[in-house]
Specification:
With 319 residues, the protein is an alpha+beta fold. It has 13 helices and 12 strands. The protein starts with a strand and ends with a helix. This is Xanthine dehydrogenase family protein subunit M.
Length: 319
Amino acid sequence: MRPFELTAPATIDEALASSGDFLAGGTTLVDLMKLDVLRPQQVVDINALPLRGIDTSDGLRIGALERMGAVAEHPGVYPAISRALLLSASQQLRNMASIGGNLMQRTRCTYFRDVASPCNKREPGTGCSAISGHNRMHAVLGTSDDCVATHASDVAVALVALDAEVRLVSAAGTRTVALADFYRLPGSTPEVETDLRPGEMITEVLVPHRDWASHSTYVKVRDRQSYEFALCSAAVALDVRDGRIADARVAVGGVATTPWRLPAVEEALRGAPPTPASFEEAASAAADGAEPLSGNGFKVSLLKRTVVRALLELTEERR
């Protein structure tokens, strides 16, 4: 780790006036500093800022500095969000990591984290080692010739499925962005991962109120049960009325460069009965547009099966 200046602003305005990297839980930033992937000259500890709180009075509002563990255990948090958080990391890490930091975490691509390997995300223009390298964990959706790294966050998948927004503040004011639009596809600029503008920070996450968001779940498929990143995951929510699916939300992770919404699957579910056959038929569109690499072709079928599994688990819980 290289030398850096540490500051601890007492107000949001003071934090926004700084030019360093924000430190909340530090579970991503400190790791990348140790690996020499990030080399900030200034680190800004924002833990004293008034960015906490969980409000469930009208939808869900989560302060950016709320810890993952606290959000997961809060009784008013929708099940898909709670389960995604509980499956994200160990209890120790959930007690440290913040919601805002989780949404801003960087990819777990080994080539990104190995400073000896070419990586367009870390050093634009150097190439993507994963395309012709070891790419079993990499994306099959949303990729480009410059980057195939998967997005690492579990809870971002659940939040995208539930139409969450993030509130962003800067010296110029406040704006609200749909989380699905907040993340950028790699294209030819994989180093630009989000719509966060210079001088902005996330202050809170907002999830709109829907009675049926309580009928949601999150399924994560991984190589080992304890503390592992997803090979594939699915967040689903269903509004079932009179034996038919009135509305649906489906998003997946571990297979795409961003948290990936599946509108074709959602549309296929609407009006259908909540049966295994309907789920299988709807999930057949889950991998549309997939471009598998040499080592991750299995993710195409795994993606479809994971969506079906999540839908089945959700309907079995309702019985």
